[in-house]
Design brief:
Blueprint (H helix, E strand, L loop, with lengths): L16 E4 L2 E4 L3 H12 L4 E4 L11 E3 L5 E3 L10 H9 L4 E3 L5 E6 L2 E5 L14 H16 L12 H4 L4 H8 L3 H15 L8 H9 L10 H5 L8 E3 L5 H10 L3 E2 L4 E7 L2 E6 L2 E5 L1 E5 L2 H4 L3 E3 L4 H8 L6 E8 L3 H4 L2 E7 L6 E4 L8 E8 H5 L6 H16 L8 E6 L18 H5 L10 E4 L11 H18 L1
Parallel strand pairs: 1-13, 2-3, 2-14, 3-10, 7-17, 11-15, 14-21
Antiparallel strand pairs: 4-5, 6-9, 7-8, 11-12, 12-13, 16-19, 16-20, 17-18, 18-19
Helix pairs in contact: 1-9, 1-16, 2-16, 3-6, 3-7, 5-6
Length: 474
């Protein structure tokens, strides 16, 4: 049993509890929960300190206001995402295919067109720009093959690729406006940043990481629904996975306990959170580098790690959903998936429950689209979201039963999403610090994963890796 708090003489819990365990895990997202599960299985005493009042971090069931939820954060999994699939299976969470029958909508320069996704191009819309898009995508795939997964700084051309943004590269490798838009949209829909915000090397590593030990990563696996990362959903919502894992950990998780400081003194680490101070031998910080930077480390961390955390910003992402009596777009022969170059939403999916008993459209508000809504009232956000859905799916989209909205870029304990990204110069100068432990402080989080970094699968993989690392060190 793990002591989770001292009691005061009155028998009531003391205001400032204290405890002592082998390992403190900071953060109850998928990476921290997985690390805790494995460390407990290895016979270690563990306490997870979580800032929020719930587990799951970037995996969250957004309340729809009628007692049900829809994924406000991570949602899809796909082929080669074996570790999240295994965890979900272990937790008894079933899966079902993302709705993908019919045509997708492409909206560019005020024109709406429909396209099938079972052709050679998969999810890529057949814009005229495709003539020079395909060579650009082939070139990207070829460069990504030369990136050692998870160690992009070791690529032969790392210096060159890390000295330019994806925007710089794409402008010199595509001529048409259509191809440029689609390359920008590739970055927006996978990373939720504009292509000028991210290093080419980072994007190449992201492509390389979209696979597993026996299947090299590909662009297709990142962007496709069928055969790609958006292929499958979880029955009851993705949040069932962290909720059930957290339930198994029981009182080894303490909620509403944001960690403020980590102090290393000889072989003892003191982790101070709101309401509780815990001493331990090793600590796992299981979150993105940008959010790990909010913790006060004493003594100061090595400069490579400290400055990495200053340089790894989060993308800007929100989800807007509208609930309808029926998934009306299905009757119109549409998948519910769309790509758009204007309006508040640049990509959509059908988020309806498996039985299609009601229709839920989900739209991503990415990068500058969501920042433009800073300070907007809930009514303004709703109007912007519904205007976008109407342009893509017609007038039936104007009158939903209800809507919901979740933005991540102003969440205190996430700071954005789906993932931290590296601007030019960061991976080659600071990249190795992503995973290198600093004495008894170990780092997890999807950003540290080799395969499927940025995804739930990467989070689970990072938790498994860090638990093995800590077990070996103890
Ligand atoms: C809108 C959105 C859509 C996404 N879509 C997908 C998708 O379809 N498929 C997919 O695979 N992935 C998707 N992702 C990415 C996925 O959510 C993440 O890769 C994954 O959940 C990260 O898990 P993590 O444990 O690394 O980090 P997190 O989930 O961020 O967990 C970190 C935890 O640490 C806590 N914390 C932070 N600071 C402190 C502190 N000081 N003290 C204590 N606790 C702290 C946080 O509250 C959080 O619970 C999406 C993300 C977003 C935001």
């Amino acid at each position: 049993a793990v002591p989770t708090g001292a009691t005061s003489p009155s028998g009531l819990p003391a205001r400032e509890a204290s405890a002592s365990v082998d390992v403190v895990v900071v953060g109850g997202g998928l990476s921290g929960l997985t690390a805790a599960r494995d460390l407990i299985a290895a016979g270690r005493s563990v306490l997870v300190l979580e800032a929020r009042d719930r587990p799951g971090g970037r995996v969250y069931g957004m309340p729809l206001g009628d007692g049900t939820t829809s994924e406000g954060g991570a949602e899809f999994i796909g082929p080669t995402q074996n570790r999240i699939a295994a965890l979900a299976k272990d937790m008894g969470v079933a899966t079902f295919p993302t709705y993908n029958s019919g045509k997708n909508v492409y909206y560019r320069e005020g024109k709406r067109s429909l396209y099938a996704t079972d052709g050679l191009l998969g999810a890529v819309p057949p814009d005229w720009g495709v003539l020079d898009l395909e060579p650009a995508l082939l070139s990207l795939g070829g460069m990504a093959k030369k990136v050692p997964v998870g160690e992009p700084w070791k690529a032969p051309d790392a210096e060159d690729w890390d000295s330019q943004t994806f925007h710089t590269w794409s402008r010199s490798h595509s001529l048409s406006a259509g191809a440029r838009f689609l390359l920008d949209e590739f970055v927006s829909s996978t990373l939720s940043v504009r292509s000028k915000e991210v290093s080419l090397l980072y994007v190449l590593n992201y492509i390389a990481s979209a696979g597993d030990e026996s299947n090299p990563g590909t662009v297709d696996r990142l962007i496709n629904t069928k055969g790609g990362g958006q292929e499958t959903r979880f029955v009851g919502g993705s949040q069932e996975v962290p909720l059930r894992l957290a339930a198994r950990l029981g009182d080894r998780i303490r909620y509403n306990a944001p960690v403020r400081s980590i102090t290393v003194d000889g072989s003892t680490v003191t982790v101070a959170a709101d309401g509780i101070t815990v001493s331990c031998k090793r600590v796992v910080v299981a979150m993105s580098p940008a959010i790990a930077n909010k913790i006060d480390y004493s003594p100061a961390l090595p400069a490579a790690r400290a400055q990495l955390m200053q340089r790894y910003p989060m993308g800007s992402i929100a989800k807007f959903v509208a609930v309808y009596d029926t998934p009306f777009w299905r009757a119109d022969g549409l998948t519910g998936q769309a790509v758009a170059d204007s309006g508040a939403i640049d990509a959509t999916f059908d988020n309806s429950p498996p039985d299609g008993s009601r229709g839920i459209l989900m739209g991503f508000m990415n990068q500058s689209n969501i920042r433009k809504l800073d300070g907007a009232s809930p009514d303004d956000v709703r109007a912007a979201g519904l205007a976008a859905f109407t342009a893509l799916f017609g007038d039936k989209a104007t009158s939903p039963v209800r809507t919901a909205f979740q933005r991540w870029d102003n969440e205190t304990w996430s700071g954005g999403g789906p993932v931290g990204v590296a601007p030019p110069g960061v991976l080659t100068e600071f990249g190795p610090a992503l995973r290198t432990p600093c004495g008894p402080i170990h780092w997890a989080g999807t950003e540290t994963s080799t395969f499927w970094t940025g995804y739930m699968d990467g989070a689970v993989r990072s938790g498994e890796r860090v638990a093995a690392e800590v077990t070996a060190a103890l």
